[in-house]
Write a structure and sequence with these properties.
Layout (H helix, E strand, L loop, with lengths): L2 H28 L7 E5 L4 H14 L7 E8 L9 H9 L3 E5 L2 H8 L7 H19 L3 E3 L4 H15 L8 E3 L6 E3 L7 H11 L15 H16 L3 H8 L30 H26 L1
Parallel strand pairs: 1-2, 1-4, 2-3, 4-6
Antiparallel strand pairs: 5-6
Helix pairs in contact: 1-2, 1-7, 2-7, 6-8, 6-9
Length: 299
């Protein structure tokens, strides 16, 4: 074995170990998987979901709890979708799986004008189909392949375009309260996942078969973060860590921290905003009236 090949194997081992450690840490930190869980691992055919399944299978061998992994893919009838790829791969791993079929592509093409991004509506339709299947089959957790970089990008998308300070949580409950969604890759870098996918030679299915691309806003955020990372390596990791170290008293959300009574001597006697603005308005009106009288006198 050459020195170069030996070093390649060492780096590959370190990468796999790092991903297992990060996924295991995320599972422990957020109690993502518990005894008896039936975890629905959502596979798209992209690098991230393949890596998620691979790492979860490795962790399952020595996990402190017993749980099931069931791989699920939704065939949305995109033109040219290679329907055999995922079933062949999953059979080779001897992993239980289901391939759902729902023609969301035609619905999206009919509703979204030509040239507009289809990702938003496509995602909602896909989520609905997966949630329905999860409930019918008694899945207790739904695992998605979003990683650290996705979460940071979403933070800035919401800040820049929605005026909201929120990202993707590692664990959430669906709006109807029936499903728990987990993101085991929450601590994993996209670059590591790409390298791991290349190392493992996953049969990647292109994500642009529908002809749609990422929104211009998300692409702009990606480029901004990539530029920051080039100029100051480690910045994305710092932002990611900041998502887990929030100080509500140092922000301005009055629903998260009681600023109103902070240091207040008489909480019962607290003028409202309208009280303050009325006073300002009255003074302005009086001043304007004086000016009107003077102008009238001159005329």
């Amino acid at each position: 074995m050459t020195a170069a090949l030996r070093q390649h194997e060492i780096n590959a081992h370190k990468l796999a170990k790092r991903l297992r450690r990060q996924v295991g840490q995320a599972i422990a930190d957020f109690r993502m998987i518990e005894e008896g869980d039936r975890v629905m691992v959502c596979l798209s055919g992209g690098k991230d979901s393949y890596a998620m399944l691979d790492v979860l299978l490795a962790l399952k061998l020595k996990a402190p709890v017993n749980f099931e992994l069931i791989a699920v893919n939704l065939d949305q009838k995109h033109p040219g979708f290679p329907a055999h790829v995922l079933p062949d791969y999953l059979r080779s791993l001897n992993v239980p799986f289901h391939i759902l079929q729902q023609d969301t592509y035609s619905v999206v093409k009919r509703v979204i004008p030509e040239g507009k991004t289809m990702c938003g509506l496509c995602s909602r339709l896909r989520r609905g189909a997966l949630y329905e299947f999860a409930e019918r089959e008694g899945m207790t957790k739904i695992a998605l392949g979003h990683h650290r970089d996705d979460m940071v990008e979403t933070l800035f998308l919401n800040m820049f375009y929605q005026s909201k300070l929120k990202a993707m949580p590692p664990k959430l409950q669906s709006d109807n309260g029936r499903h728990v969604v987990i993101r085991p890759l929450a601590y994993c870098k996209e670059d590591d996942l790409a390298a791991f996918a290349k190392l493992r030679q996953f049969p990647i299915i292109p994500c642009n078969l529908c002809g749609s691309q990422e929104t211009l806003q998300r692409q702009a955020i990606k480029e901004m973060l990539a530029d920051w990372e080039r100029k100051q390596p480690g910045r994305i990791e710092n932002i990611s860590r900041a998502l887990g170290d929030v100080a509500p008293s140092q922000l301005a959300d009055r629903t998260l921290f009681d600023f109103a009574t902070l240091g207040t001597r008489d909480p019962a006697n607290s003028p409202s905003a309208s009280d303050w603005l009325l006073g300002d308005g009255a003074e302005s009106t009086d001043a304007e009236s004086d000016v009107d009288h003077k102008i009238h006198a001159i005329c």
